[in-house]
Structure formats: structure tokens, C-alpha cells
Amino acid sequence: MPTAPRIAVLLPCHNEAVAIAGVVAAFRAALPGAEIHVYDNNSTDGTVAAARAAGARLGEEALQGKGNVLRRMFSDIEADFFLMADGDGTYDAADAPSMLALALAKRLDMVTAVRVGQGDAAYRPGHAWGNRLLTGLVGAIFGRRQADMLSGYRMLSRRFVKSFPALSGGFEIETELTVHALELRMPIGEIRSAYGARPAGSASKLRTFHDGARILATILALLQRERPLPFFGALAGLFLLAAIGFFAPVFTTYLASGLVPRLPTFLASVCCLQLSFLAMAVGLILDTVTRGRQEARRIAYLAIAGPGCREPATLSPAPGAKLDETPAVHPG
Question: Does one domain contain both 296 and 167?
Fold first, then answer.
């Protein structure tokens, strides 16, 4: 008889004393057998006491930022499935069983809750527009398989979590999670979920323009790291266009007079041409390196049993068989 999967609910928190008790209670009601983990991130408002009173398992991370907290949680906690959420009460805990059921039924490594705002106070139009823009940008680069790249409400398999490098420090962690799944071509899915307003008395930690700029910078860094040939190929093309632009008037003058009076312009065209060749060479070399890194990540991912699969059994001898303890000697 198959055993029920172990579920860990991960709630990274910074100053969420107003909401955290209700969030813990909601997820305990939605997933009665799950372990609820609250990791505090330098709170100063009684978040730890509220989480302890609610019966959550407590942890802490001193490095500030959601990405840092989740990296610590991914390394500390063991489970078959990990449910990421926020401690601010904006995500609907009642949808957690549906996310788990979808992950189990289709053996998915990630199920994302696509946020459906319950009024402007919950999902401000500017945030929704920025999310669509950034999600569309990632989709154009890495594949259009996610409708809400910045959602922080996700069900993740053990092999996803334990093969995820988690390099981000802040709110850009969701971008990194999405690109990790798209790059390894993992089986993923989505459900639509209500996204509500924060409870009265709590304040959002999201800084719209600052965090949006960090997410955009993360996307560009991931493009350079995961798609080096297109990235450096585009740079090579720009340098080549600049070289042609510098060289065209010099060549026109040379055809008319047989002289090259614009020597600095000619040298600038030569430098741009060399930079174009260099950028293309760097792109080709890094593309080979990236392919090797992707293969290594894929092997690490496959080394962990997937959703609904058993861990590989250790081979044991058949009954009555004798083990030859003499080491084999190979000629030559």
C-alpha cells in the first residue's frame, strides 16, 4: 500500500506578526498531514512568537532576502513535496490540495498558482503589468510555459528542490525557479488561484521599481549564463554594425581620392571588427561550457527519484547466493 507523500509548507517571513498565525492555521487545515515551517528573516515585530504559538516549526536565516531564506529552507528541510508560500496571507491555502493532486497525478516537478487578483488592493495594476512584461520576456527567451513567473505560491518536488542551485538573494528567486524548470525541460503545470489583499496592519516588503530592476537584471544575467551564443552573438552583430558604420565614410573617401585622411575613424572600425570577432568567439566557447553545465545539472536532477517514484533500491544477492569477496584481477 503506497504511503502518503511527506509535505513541507515553507513560509519565509520578515515582520509578518499580524498574518502568520492565520497563515499557519489555514495551511494546517488545507494539508492536515503537512509540516509547517516558518523561517524568520530578522523580524522585529513578534513574528517568531506568533509562529511558535501557532505551532509552526521554526528556523531562521540571518542573510536578508527571500532568496537567502528559501535557499536555507531547501537545504535544511526534507520532504517529498515542498509548498512555497508567503507569510502575509495573500495566497489561498485552500488551493494547496489541488496543487498537490495535480503534481501527483501528472508527476510534475513544479505546479505554479497563477494569481487572480481579488481587487486592485490585492494585485495592483502596476504590479500586474510588470509581471506580464517580465513573464513575457522570460517566455520569449526560455520558452512560454509559465503564465505567472513571479508567483511565490508553488508546489515543488523533492528532486526539483534538491537539484536547484538557489543563487538569488531576494525576490528574484521566483525568476530563477522558473528558468531552472524551463532549462531542464521539467514537467510543470499551473492552476488558477485567488490572490487576496494583505490583512490590515501589515505592510508589503516589495519595492516595485527597485525589485523590478533586480528581476530584470537577473533575467539578463540568466540570458548571458544560459544562452551565451545568442547573447554574445547579438553583441558581435552590434560591433560589426559599428565597424561598418565607421568604415563606410573612410572607404568612400579612399575610392574618391586614394587617401585615408580619417585614420582615427579607420582604427575605430578595425577595433570594432576585432571586438565583433572576439564576442563571437566568447559566445561559442561559453556555449560549449554551458552545455556541459546543463548536462551536469540534468544528471544531478535525474539522480533523485521523481514524484510518485521510489528511491532506487540497493542491489542484494539472491537467496542462497554466495558473495565472492576476492577482488577481481584484470589482465593488463
Answer: no
Handedness of CA 12, 18, 21, 27 (dihedral sign): negative
Would residue 325 count as lying in a domain? no
**Number of independent structural domains in the chain:** 2
With 0-12 / 13-18 / 19 or more C-beta atoms within 10 angstroms meaning exposed / middle / buried, residue 317 is: exposed
In the block, cell 545568442 appears at 230
Spatial CA neighbour of 21 closest among 60, 56, 66: 56
Contacts of 176 by beta carbon, 8 Å cutoff, 6+ apart: 67, 166, 167, 168, 218, 222
Same domain, 96 and 85: yes
Question: How far is the C-alpha of 165 from the C-alpha of 2, rounded, in Å?
Answer: 31
Q: The C-alpha cell of 315 is what?
A: 542491489
Classify residue 161 by its DSSP letter.
Answer: H
pLDDT in tens, 225-272: 889 999 999 999 999 999 999 999 989 888 888 887 888 999 999 999
Nearest to 37 by CA among 88, 82, 71: 82
Residue 120 to residue 130: CA distance in whole angstroms: 14
Structural domain range at position 266 = 228-302
Residue 10 phi/psi, 5° resolution? Answer: -105, 120
pTM passes above 0.85: no
64 grid coordinates: 536578508
- State whether 252 and 217 are in the same domain: no
Tell me which amino acid residue 217 is: A
DSSP string, 114-153: EEEESSTTTS-HHHHHHHHHHHHHHHHHH-S--S-TT---
Counting every residue written for the chain, the total comes to 332
CA distance linking residue 204 with residue 245, whole number of Å: 49
Domain shared by 211 and 280, yes or no: no
- Same-domain status, 242 and 130: no
